[in-house]
Design goal:
The complex is a heterodimer of chains A (248) and B (322).
Chain A lengths: L5 E10 L2 E11 L4 E5 L6 H8 L10 E4 L2 E2 L8 H4 L1 E3 L12 H6 L13 H14 L15 H14 L4 E5 L7 H18 L2 E5 L3 H7 L2 E6 L2 E6 L1 H5 L2 H6 L8
Parallel strand pairs in A: 3-8, 3-9, 6-7, 7-8
Antiparallel strand pairs in A: 1-2, 1-4, 4-5, 9-10
Helix pairs in contact in A: 4-5, 6-7
Chain B lengths: L8 H24 L2 H26 L7 H17 L4 H23 L5 H20 L1 H4 L5 E2 L7 H24 L1 H11 L1 H6 L4 H27 L1 E2 L6 H13 L7 H15 L7 H35 L7
Antiparallel strand pairs in B: 1-2
Helix pairs in contact in B: 1-2, 1-7, 2-7, 2-10, 2-11, 2-12, 3-4, 3-5, 3-10, 4-10, 7-10, 11-12, 11-13, 12-13
Classes of the chains: A alpha/beta (248), B mainly alpha (322).
Chain lengths: 248, 322
């Protein structure tokens, strides 16, 4: 088997006395969609923050991405290697239009002199269309509904043409229809660009519609991983996350 | 690289032309209105150059610095020492800008490690400390009596036109800068540093660059002030100068570069017209600042209250809301 796109070995993160992530290990293959579930405080976002190099990890940890040592990079170098990221809240510049915010992602791309600005612009328009938000493009971010702002982050990250996209609760607080639209758009994006997705989500239904594989976390530890049905039916997962007792 | 915006470039060009023509008209009109107005409007141009630096810093990168006056002092003394050593006008102003930029870097290296209010607090310390340092280093700076630059490397008239020429250049440059990707990047990092990092922006380097830019313009403004007044004394560069610069930028709207022209005019005119009310200028400017922030809010809230009230009376049950 070829080398995985992302290889995480023995990563722990602690905040003072709190162990947010304990000896976490996983691999992500190119073009794979991996879902992460777990109750609040399980360490899901901390895991993304470790991959984004926002938090300090333990000594002896190893994170390799496309053969590069991620732990040797500063945070702003990570996206240049091909890792995109979104946040739980819409972290956009509220003074610019939605389109301008999306275009920020395009600055990351190496631009050969013969490339045209219009190409980047056309790609941004395509992305906005794929997520059903083209009519908001020229509005100021403050005039745009919250879920649309959140989705704009996906477009911003995708415009940089990442190999791996880290999504932090992309389907939180939106309607079932919108969830389906996002799920379809994400699957299509993956087919078209070959991007791998690492998705944190509470909605197991949403995840199972897009993921090949799932990882469950609780108290910073990986408690299960495998196919969607394996993880969902895992007794430990049912106990800690889905809120069922053993007697059921 | 130009930023791809939905903004029409035609409108932008018209705006630039309007700004330059308007500024030229004001400069000529003030020049024709006698020595006093030429002095006052020259001062406005000098303030505006300094404020443009702070506009990018506070308005766009959202970094609250209260030491722009101290950076002006660095530029003024750097320029004055150069002039006394025989530098011509160009060399002197280059020296001022350079010293301002270096001072910005020296302050920025430790201060930018802090964020938000802590950064502002450190810059206040700088603003308070610099006049004292000037007094202590009296062998170089002349202490409380200051340094005179006579003969000045520029005549009064020449320095006036140089100030306006530089103002136009800095103004147009900043308009263009904000149209590039830099504008969008600064806005993003002002809102969320981690989102900026995930967009590949080196946050620390961007902040430092903007702070150095503001120091460069403050230094240049300080040098111009030294030329205009042919004298530098530490008392000019007190904490209030920094606060005035802040007030001017806030009054200017903290967005479009052209706004600082209005803010600078207020900040220069208020002390000019309150000379008789000795020492009241800071108080009045403080009131102006508070009013400029609260009145639009009260106005909006007043309209809302009116709408709610109106709704209650006409529609019946309370239908109004926020």
């Amino acid at each position: 088997m070829s080398e995985p796109l992302l290889e995480v070995r023995d990563v722990s993160v602690s905040f003072g006395g709190l162990q947010a992530l304990v000896e976490f290990e996983c691999e992500v293959q190119a073009s794979e969609i991996v879902g992460i579930i777990g109750p609040n405080g399980a360490g899901k976002t901390t895991l993304l923050n470790a991959l984004s190099r926002f938090v300090r990890v333990n000594r002896g940890a190893r994170i390799r991405f496309r053969g590069y040592d991620l732990l040797g990079c500063r945070a702003h170098k990570v996206p240049a290697l091909g890792i995109g990221r979104t946040f739980q809240g819409p972290e956009l510049s509220s003074r610019d239009t939605l389109l301008d915010n999306v275009l920020v992602g395009g600055y990351l791309r190496p631009r050969p002199p013969w490339s045209r600005r219009a190409d980047v612009r056309a790609e941004a328009d395509d992305l906005l269309r794929a997520f059903g938000m083209e009519r908001w493009a020229s509005l100021k971010v403050t005039e745009v509904p919250y879920p649309i702002q959140k989705r704009a982050q996906i477009c911003r990250a995708m415009l940089a043409r990442p190999r791996l996209l880290l999504l932090d609760e992309p389907a939180a607080g939106i309607t079932a229809e919108e969830k389906q639209q996002i799920a379809e758009a994400l699957v299509q994006l993956r087919q078209r660009t070959g991007v791998a997705l690492f998705v944190i989500e509470h909605d197991v239904g949403f995840l199972s519609s897009i993921c090949q594989r799932m990882i469950a976390l609780d108290f910073g530890r990986k408690i299960a991983s495998g196919s969607v049905s394996e993880v969902v039916n895992d007794p430990a997962v049912r106990r800690s996350y889905l809120g069922e007792s053993d007697d059921d | 690289m130009r930023r791809l915006t939905t903004d029409s470039s035609l409108r932008f060009r018209a705006l630039i032309v309007a700004e330059v023509v308007g500024l030229a008209a004001v400069a000529v009109a003030a020049d024709r209105s006698g020595d006093y107005y030429r002095y006052v409007f020259g001062l406005i141009a000098v303030y505006a150059i300094v404020c443009l630096g702070n506009n990018l810093l506070l308005g766009h990168a959202r970094l609250l610095s209260l030491c722009q006056g101290a950076l002006m002092a660095a530029g003024a003394y750097g320029g004055a020492l150069a002039a006394r050593a025989g530098a011509n006008a160009v060399e002197m102003l280059l020296m001022s800008a350079l010293v301002g930029a270096v001072a910005g870097m020296v302050v920025g290296i430790p201060a930018l490690r802090l964020s938000g209010h802590f950064f502002a607090a450190v810059t206040i310390l700088v603003a308070v400390a610099v006049p004292e340092v000037i007094l202590v280093a009296d062998r170089v700076t002349g202490g409380a009596t200051g340094l005179s630059i006579s003969p000045s490397p520029l005549s009064d008239a020449a320095s006036y036109w140089v100030a306006y020429g530089l103002l136009v250049v800095v103004l147009v440059t900043q308009e263009l800068m904000l149209r590039t990707r830099l504008g969008a990047e600064l806005h993003l990092l002002a809102e969320s540093e981690r989102a900026a990092a995930t967009a590949g922006i080196d946050v620390a380097r961007h902040k430092m660059a903007v702070f150095i830019y503001s120091g460069l313009l403050a230094g240049l403004g300080g040098g111009l002030l030294a030329v205009v007044s042919q004298y530098v004394v530490p008392s000019v560069f007190n904490v209030f100068l920094s606060i005035y610069i802040l007030v001017a930028v806030v009054l200017g709207g903290m967005n479009r570069p052209v706004g600082v022209l209005f803010g600078s005019a207020v900040v220069v005119f208020v002390p000019q017209y309150t000379v008789d009310l000795a020492g009241l200028a800071p108080f009045i400017l403080g009131l102006v600042l508070i009013a400029s922030i609260t009145i639009p809010r009260l106005w909006r809230r007043g309209l809302q209250a009116l709408a709610v009230w109106n709704g209650r009376h006409e529609v019946g049950p309370a239908s109004g809301g926020a």
